Amino acid sequence: MNDSDLILMRPIGRVLSPFTSKEGVPIQTAGAPEVKGEIEVFAEFAAGLKDLADFEYIILLTRLHLGTDEPLEVVPFLDDASHGVFATRSPSRPNRIGLSIVRLTGVDGTRLSFEGNDMVDGTPVLDIKPYLPAFDVRHTERIGWFAGRLGQLPGRLSDDRMG
Fold it and tell me: Does the pLDDT at position 163 exceed 50?
């Protein structure tokens, strides 16, 4: 890899969360729809929040800043076999980019309130996008190794077909 392959990003804000370490953080937002959090958007990005309050769900791209390893094969939650990291939702990723779909419950200046928190306090937010079902929902029956694990999902997650 040479310097021209490197990508520099700066956060637009940070997550304020009751989770202060990786232990105990929900695996996915759908598994903890009632867990609240906030995002503090930095003042220089305030204009980008215009009209965001009109959306019920938003997509957050974050930096998994507490990650330390970046293996290309992992044993994911609910499985005992190794899979390529790109076939999993493991937080151990080559670029440590997280994706969370959360329910936006309020916008107060540069502070966003949401439910469905699966992030640690201080997590850098790289981008925010509106969730649009017409573009973002895909119905599928082909969900790889995960298909055999649907019955093992806890609570609300077992009602959803995720892929």
Answer: no
